[in-house]
Design goal:
The complex is a heterodimer of chains A (707) and B (344). Chain A has 707 residues and is an alpha+beta fold. Chain A is built from 19 helices and 26 strands. Chain B is α/β, with parallel strands linked by helices. Chain B has a 6-stranded parallel sheet, sandwiched between helices. A 6-stranded mixed sheet of chain B has the order 7-6-8-9-10-12, sandwiched between helices. Classes of the chains: A alpha+beta (707), B alpha/beta (344).
Chain lengths: 707, 344
């Protein structure tokens, strides 16, 4: 190994490049910018302003933030639903006036007055909602009009009753609590805002209606097509906004007892600034309540702190304007460039030194020498299968395979001419195996491990495993369950090929040459799963070796087959059985003569093998070259190899023409035939194995032995 | 590197303290009448926060200039904050100031009620609080400033006498309000109502409000003038807003025919409006005097070791009436001059 190889190897081992891409895929990354801004402003202001971080200072700061937080949350909900609510400033003023009028002038008890006031504000929201949601007027102009109308109403009321409503203030403990109360040292109004934030967050992220709001904001048409009542959802967002603004107005009235005309003037701009600054995208669909609360906090922090510098009048609105500009620019640029950035940095190649490449030339004399034996295999389901990755047989010899459309297909024995959808699962089924009761176990990509009973009942067995402590990708979620097998005690060992890619770009994982996959064990006694063997390169082809304590598995991109002891004295040990396949091994199955079949889904090429030792080259390629032009594993040619438990390769079967079975992802020997599946092939093959046991059914190796 | 910085800092600190001692030594030579040194030492280094409506407003500029000068001369620390006509920001500024625990807090109110509870809290927290020029419903350590009832009373009385049918006029006047809950307006309206009650021959045709905004005032007044061709007089509550009123009267060609009364800080630039006949009667707050009295109140509050809010007192500074006929330049003040007037 030369020195540049050594550097590349150690670099890829110790610098976790892939983390950058994984962080960028996280939803919370949208919040990262405001969080950084938040921390930076706290540090800046605490250096610039004395007493800034004193307890009293913070409590005061929070007390002033409560109302803005309420209004901003309402604004954020409307924005998430794809709208904008400019009327909040006036509704806020209305709530303020009505509260003072009810409590001070009419002397109603506060607990009666407040719900009425908030409900009236809700009515204002209903007007907006009907106009924008049902009559489909433009949100911007409509709410601008309601802003003016409600403001005019408030001004009228203030002029006529303004001095009356502030002449007395109620003698009520409840009222005093609203104004200056603290709970465990927290100002009541901010605490109320936090409680509301939690409730709204749960509403938006965990409840149907909340999901609808973001769905509508993300794409009205898609939401409509998905059966969501778009108009009602939009209308509802305005009502929620107005109710929250009403609460804010009530708290403001309690705090200041101020029937001034300036209450709520310009509040819509401040709330909008806060909502967008927090990372709620103006385009709708993207956002959250914590983001709104964070945005409100930052804006309040700024305005409050600027107030403490001796600045000329107008500095504060100027600051708000600049922050809004910054927030909108960040929002637009970030949304536009995030995916570009992500696609540039997500593929993160590591160093891998491939084993020596053995020849497969017809005259090479190796067991891998290409022949044309599969040319005569009979087709099954010609042009009917799409994404048949694996095959299984039930007790009546019917053939089962998966499809790209999320179905499990059943071909009827004995001629396999007719086909039906056996079950619709949703994700693409990969590895398939029958258990002793005749239930079909399936590894489903994007979903996990499933069982389909004889009665076609679909049962989810496992879709999560233990999460790795420092993993950034949520690896408790199963992204790519690939192949499985049964241990004698009923445990299921299954592989997850990669935790970094989905089924549609599975081959991109090969460019990373990193141990992104793992083997997981599902235990029927506890109905829980645990990762037993992490960090494997596209592990695949789980197959029990027959000694009740070890299994074989392939590491596709490493072109090797390993043996793993899950029980017995060697428990946990992994030993390489075949280190140097000329192609990429996929599923492994038992053969009637006590050996193993392994499918090769593609062949190694010298160019890619060389590139495996050049992670920098592959990184530059992934960043600069269009996806279609990448150097890629050759998955247009493959074959089947037979080997014994000691790793001796016995023979290989090929379709030299490459037009019938160009790639093979799985095969299964059944009653004298070898059935061939390839996820990109347009047929399943049936090859008569000369001299094979005509009664062989690999299920007998598992189930009948014990009966 | 950091030890180097520390060393430099240490040297600088030593030099500074030597310099300080030298300065103190020089002052120590001054005659002490028994309070001189005590006064200087008590006031020095204290913290005062002044919160004003808007630093663009002449009254606030005058107050800030006066206190800044006093702070320089007496060596206390003054911080001026400006809430720009926004009660919420004002409340923020006050509560923030309370949490900083200054020795004296000076507030120019915008509203009767808005800061009432905050003032109660300031006193509870032991922050001596002085309200200046505009007083809320709550009493604090001191109020220094004009008596709004008296100011408005002067104007309305003048207008009533000028417009009375006895004087051959229509008896129709109009009032231009600011915001209803501002003490200037609220208390002023009481005076207006009291005077009008005594004079049933006078009718107020409009009491519309213009939110202290000159352009709004212009619109309101222009409309009222059209609606009431025989209007005799118009009364406003603050010159900042009433500039729009005077402009509307002038544009209607009624300058000199419709009597315009206003009140305000009486800074030199507004005095011009008296000499050019825009304001027929103008009651000026004597801001240099208010500032002087405010400075005195601050100095007292800084020296007296009493409980905050224990002895509330007021010092009402009378306004003075300016008319074109009786005008003399010394009745006005200028900001420049105020900035230069030494405290001691």
């Amino acid at each position: 190994m030369n020195s540049s190889d050594t550097i590349a190897k150690w670099r890829s081992r110790f610098i976790p490049d892939h983390v950058v891409g994984e962080i960028l895929t996280k939803e919370w990354i949208d919040t990262a910018i405001p969080v950084v801004m938040f921390i930076a402003s706290i540090i800046a202001f605490s250096l610039l302003l004395p007493h800034f971080l004193s307890l009293g200072g913070i409590v005061e700061l929070l007390r002033q933030m409560g109302e803005l937080t309420f209004v901003t949350m309402g604004m954020a909900i409307v924005i998430m639903a794809g709208g904008i609510d400019l009327s909040v400033g006036s509704v806020f003023a209305l709530a303020n006036f009505l509260t003072l009028a009810c409590v001070n002038y009419l002397a109603w008890p506060p607990y009666l007055a407040l719900p009425i006031v908030i409900a009236i504000c809700g009515l204002c929201g209903l007007v907006n909602g009907v106009l924008v949601g049902y009559l489909r007027l433009r949100a911007f102009l409509t709410t601008l009009a309601t802003l003016i109308i409600v403001r005019a109403l408030v001004d009228y009321l203030l002029f006529h009753y303004g001095s009356k409503v502030v002449e007395s203030s109620p003698d009520s403990e409840f009222w005093d609590f609203l104004s200056f109360g603290t709970v465990f040292g927290f100002p009541f109004n901010y605490l109320a805002a936090i409680v509301a934030a939690v409730v709204l967050h749960v509403f938006l992220t965990r409840m149907r209606l909340g999901w609808h709001i973001r769905a509508v904001g993300g794409s009205r048409r898609s939401a409509h097509n998905a059966g969501i009542n778009v108009r009602r959802t939009v209308c509802l967002s305005y009502i929620v906004s107005a109710l929250l603004t009403g609460i804010a107005g009530v708290l403001y009235a309690a705090r200041l007892n101020n029937a001034g005309t300036e209450a709520g003037v310009g509040l819509e701009v401040v709330a909008l600034t806060a909502a967008v600054l927090g990372g709620n995208s103006l385009g709708g669909g993207r956002g959250s309540i914590p983001k709104a609360a964070l945005g409100a906090f930052i804006v309040a922090l700024f305005t409050n702190s600027l107030l403490r510098f001796t600045l000329p009048s107008g500095a504060n609105p100027l600051a708000i304007g600049l922050i809004l500009l910054l927030a909108v620019a960040t929002d637009v640029r970030w949304l536009k460039n995030r995916h570009k950035l992500l696609s540039r940095v997500y593929v993160s190649p590591a160093y891998f030194e491939p084993p020596p490449l053995l020849s497969t030339a017809p005259d090479s004399g190796t067991p891998y020498a290409v022949n044309n034996k599969l040319q005569d295999a009979e087709p099954i389901g010609l042009d009917q299968v799409d994404g048949a990755e694996d095959i299984a047989f039930d007790a009546d010899d019917n053939l089962y395979t998966g499809s790209r459309h999320g179905d499990i297909l059943r071909f009827e024995a004995p001629d396999y001419a007719s086909v039906e959808v056996f079950a619709h699962i949703g994700g693409q089924p990969l590895g398939l195996h029958f258990d002793g009761d005749g239930s079909l176990f399936a590894c489903v990509s994007g979903m996990g491990l499933y069982k389909i009973t004889r009665d076609r009942e679909i049962i989810r067995l496992s879709d999560e495993t233990n999460r790795t402590l420092l993993s950034i990708v949520d690896d408790s979620r199963m992204r790519f369950a690939d192949d499985m097998d049964f241990a004698p005690d009923g445990r299921v060992f299954f592989s997850e090929a990669t935790i970094r890619y989905d089924i549609f770009d599975w081959a991109t994982d090969s460019l990373e040459a990193r141990g992104n996959g793992r083997i997981i064990c599902w235990d029927p006694r506890t109905n829980a799963s645990r990762t037993v063997l992490p960090k494997r390169m596209f592990p695949n082809g789980i197959c029990m070796i027959g000694d009740n304590e070890s299994l074989l598995f392939a590491e596709t991109w490493a072109a090797r087959i390993n043996r793993y002891w899950f029980d017995g004295p060697h428990k946990g040990k992994v030993e390489c059985v075949i280190p140097d396949m000329p192609g990429y091994p996929d599923n492994i199955r038992r053969s009637s003569d006590g050996n193993f079949w392994v499918a090769m889904l593609g062949m190694r090429t010298p160019a890619l093998d060389l590139a495996m030792k050049m992670p920098g080259f592959r990184r530059r390629m992934a960043q600069r070259v269009a996806f279609e032009e990448w150097i890629y594993p050759n998955i247009n040619t493959g074959g089947v190899v037979k080997f014994d438990a000691n790793g001796n390769v016995l023979e290989s079967l090929w379709d030299a023409s490459g037009d019938k079975y160009p790639m093979i992802t799985s095969m299964r020997e059944h009653k004298g035939y070898l059935y061939l599946a390839g996820v990109y092939n347009n047929r399943i093959g049936r090859y008569r194995i000369p001299g094979a046991d005509p009664s062989f059914n690999d299920r007998h190796l598992y189930w009948d032995k014990r009966k | 590197m950091s030890t180097m910085i520390k060393r430099v800092a240490t040297i600088a600190a030593i030099l500074a303290s030597v310099g300080g001692l030298a300065g103190a030594g020089a002052r120590a030579a001054e005659y002490d009448d028994g309070l001189t040194v005590k006064f200087q030492e008590t006031v020095k280094g204290k913290k005062v926060v002044l919160i004003v409506i808007s630093s663009g407003m002449d009254i606030a500029q005058g107050l800030a200039a006066g206190l800044t000068r006093q702070a320089q001369d007496l060596g206390y620390e003054l911080s001026v904050r400006d809430y720009n006509w926004n009660n919420d920001q004002g409340a923020q500024a006050i509560s923030q100031a309370i949490s900083e625990k200054p020795d004296v807090l000076v507030v120019q109110n915008l509203d009767m009620q808005a800061y009432a509870s905050l003032f109660k809290r300031a006193i509870k927290e032991g922050v001596k609080t002085i309200q200046v020029q505009v007083k809320s419903t709550v009493n604090t350590d001191a109020y220094v400033g004009v008596d709004w009832y008296q100011i408005a009373h002067k104007n309305i009385s003048k207008l009533v006498s000028l417009c009375s049918p006895k004087a051959g006029k229509s008896g129709k006047i109009a009032i231009l309000q600011g915001t209803p809950n501002n003490p200037t307006n609220f208390v002023g309206m009481k005076a207006v109502e009291d005077v009008l009650a005594e004079h049933p021959e006078i009718t107020a045709v409009s009491k519309a409000s213009a939110d202290w905004d000159a352009s709004k005032a212009h619109g309101v007044v222009a409309t009222v003038l059209k609606q009431t061709p025989d209007l005799c007089g118009y009364m406003g509550f603050w010159d900042g807003q009433d500039a729009g009123m005077a402009a509307a009267v002038a544009e209607a060609g009624l300058k000199g025919k419709v009597f315009v009364t206003s009140s305000g800080a009486g800074e030199k630039s507004t005095c011009d409006k008296v000499t050019d006949g825009s304001f027929d009667n103008y009651v000026a707050y004597n801001i240099p005097l208010v500032t002087r009295e405010l400075g005195a109140a601050v100095a007292v509050a800084l020296q007296q070791n009493t409980k905050a809010g224990a002895y509330p007192y007021a010092n009402y500074v009378p306004g003075r009436e300016l008319t074109k006929a009786t005008f003399s330049p010394d009745q006005c003040w200028s900001l420049e001059q105020l900035k230069q007037t030494p405290w001691k």
